[in-house]
TrEMBL record:
The lineage of its organism: Bacteria, Pseudomonadati, Pseudomonadota, Gammaproteobacteria, Oceanospirillales. The chain crosses the membrane at residues 12-34, 54-82, 214-232, 239-256, 297-322, 423-443, 455-473. SUPFAM superfamilies: MetI-like. InterPro entries: MetI-like_sf. This is PhnE/PtxC family ABC transporter permease. Its main location: membrane. It comes from the Bacteria. The keyword DNA-binding does not apply.
């Protein structure tokens, strides 16, 4: 039901987003954006699968990076979850998951190059932090009473296996399956930094105006995501994990001297390398903050706030498409397909496409973030609405939406939205690689100029900003008494 605190908080976010609109660049600069959009849509409905003879290998690379990255993240994350009560473990996990996979890829590219290890670690490290947090929350929600009836002398491992782990197993499996879907999206996007996944071929096909090839690649990607539950079976996972290393592709051999130089020289601040000493560090940091960090933070916050509110609006508008209280069998199937496509398309890919259509501004990023996250939350709220039982004389149409369902679903909706807040912030920062002046833009520029010391400072600032938003979101959920479950993804 409606509560005054949730209404005040919601209005505050909306007012802040409206204020941000006055400072954001939301212009369309291309000469004929609708003509380009029409060509793209024509390519989507007339896919040319014959033109993408490389697609089989690209799909295998995408799957291999996803399975190995997520698999390694699961193994490390589960071990970390068992020790998650340690403040050091929690802090380390918060830090690594606050850095986007593409930022990790850009870091590893500097010393591993286009080696398969770059893609695997870029997925595994942040995912380990995510798995550690969520697995710990799921295990903590387990009923403690079964542990009280274990025989005297039962070991810690036996207690874990037969009490908390036994109860939490379905939720752990469900969440891991969802993160595998996320891993496939992350793996595809790694192609935009040169790794041989679907994103690499999508970018090249789009740059050449081959929209039918783009349509074929996108449809195949959606097909992979949509059929996950049929071909990713628990008994087949060991086979996939064993086979995955053979389909990563080959890269140049790792030059270990470059690795040591990166950590001992490249990321050392320039004043310390040049002999200016600690006295030169403060001016160097001040220039970096004023010229790059503060503009990047400002634009990142602007874009995040607008995208967050637009995500909420889209979620509330779209959830009836998958709710049995509003749609029949055919309409529900169409709505489900639409929201699955929205949530399955990576924000980075959406923003890349929209940038080509509309030109460089914040508008493509806002729309991409809102479509992807709105699809996720809309699907979640729609499923939640199916659990609500209405009285026989409940109103229909808009009355049912406004007075019966939305008030009951608003608390879970805000919980999901605040949960996605930090994720939207992470994506906002990384979209700067596409040319939008968020923190990622300055990180990418520093790397292109071979100023890795500046890039690492900016990445650290990005991580701290994401951690701050995550803390604020948790406090808001607690203050508003929003029910938040660990397994709050599709």
């Amino acid at each position: 039901m409606w509560h005054s605190a949730t209404i005040r908080t919601s209005l505050g976010f909306v007012v802040l987003a409206i204020a941000c609109l006055f400072f954001a660049d939301l212009s369309i600069s291309t000469v004929n954006p609708w003509q380009e959009l029409g060509r793209l849509l024509l390519g989507l409905v007339t896919p040319n699968f014959a033109a993408v003879d490389f697609v089989g290998l690209a799909i295998l690379h995408t799957l291999a990076f996803a399975f190995l990255g997520v698999g390694l993240g699961v193994a490390v994350g589960f071990l970390l979850a068992l020790a998650f009560r340690s403040v050091w473990i929690r802090t380390a996990c918060a830090f690594v998951r606050a850095i986007h996979e593409l930022f990790w890829a850009l870091i590893f590219l500097q010393f591993f190059g286009l080696h398969p290890l770059t893609g695997v670690l870029a997925i595994a490290i942040p995912y380990a932090g995510v798995f550690a947090k969520v697995y710990a929350e799921i295990l903590d929600e387990a009923d403690p009473r079964p542990a009280q009836v274990l025989p005297y002398g039962s070991g810690w491992v036996s207690g874990l296996a037969f009490t908390r782990l036994n109860q939490a197993w379905p939720h752990l499996v469900s969440y891991t399956a969802y993160r595998l879907e996320c891993g496939l999206r992350s793996s595809a996007v790694l192609g935009f930094v040169g790794l041989p996944t679907l994103g690499y071929y999508l970018e090249s096909s789009f740059a050449q105006g081959q929209y039918s090839s783009v349509g074929a690649l996108l449809l195949l990607f959606y097909l992979i995501i949509a059929t996950l539950k049929w071909w990713v079976r628990p008994r087949l996972l060991p086979l996939y994990l064993v086979a995955a290393p053979f389909f990563l592709g080959s890269g140049l051999p790792i030059v270990w001297h470059n690795v040591s130089r990166f950590f001992t020289e490249d990321i050392v601040p320039a004043p310390l390398r040049s002999g200016d000493g600690w006295s030169g560090l403060a001016p160097w940091l001040a220039d970096l903050l004023v010229d790059q960090a503060l503009p990047g933070i400002w634009n990142t916050l602007l874009l995040t706030q607008i995208a967050l509110v637009l995500t909420g609006v889209l979620s509330l508008a779209l959830f009836p498409l998958v709710s049995r209280h509003f749609t029949g069998r055919v309409g529900g199937t169409f709505g489900h397909i639409l929201l699955v496509v929205m949530r399955s398309t990576p924000e980075y890919l959406l923003a890349f496409i929209l940038l080509q259509l509309w030109g460089p501004s914040m508008l493509p990023a806002v729309v991409a973030l809102a479509l992807h996250n709105g699809g996720i939350i809309g699907h979640l709220i729609g499923r939640r609405s199916n659990e609500v039982t209405l009285r026989p004389d409940a109103p229909r149409g808009f009355g049912r939406y406004a007075y019966e369902l939305t008030p009951r679903l608003y608390g879970p909706f805000l919980a999901f939205l605040f949960y996605r807040w930090e994720i939207i912030m992470r994506e906002t920062a990384i979209l700067g690689i596409l040319g939008i002046a968020t923190l990622g833009f300055y990180v990418d520029s520093a790397i292109q100029e071979i100023r890795f010391d500046r890039a690492m400072v900016l990445i650290l600032i990005t991580a701290l900003l994401n951690i701050g938003v995550d803390i604020l979101a948790r406090r808001l959920r607690t203050g508003l008494r929003l029910r938040h479950t660990a397994n709050c993804e599709p």
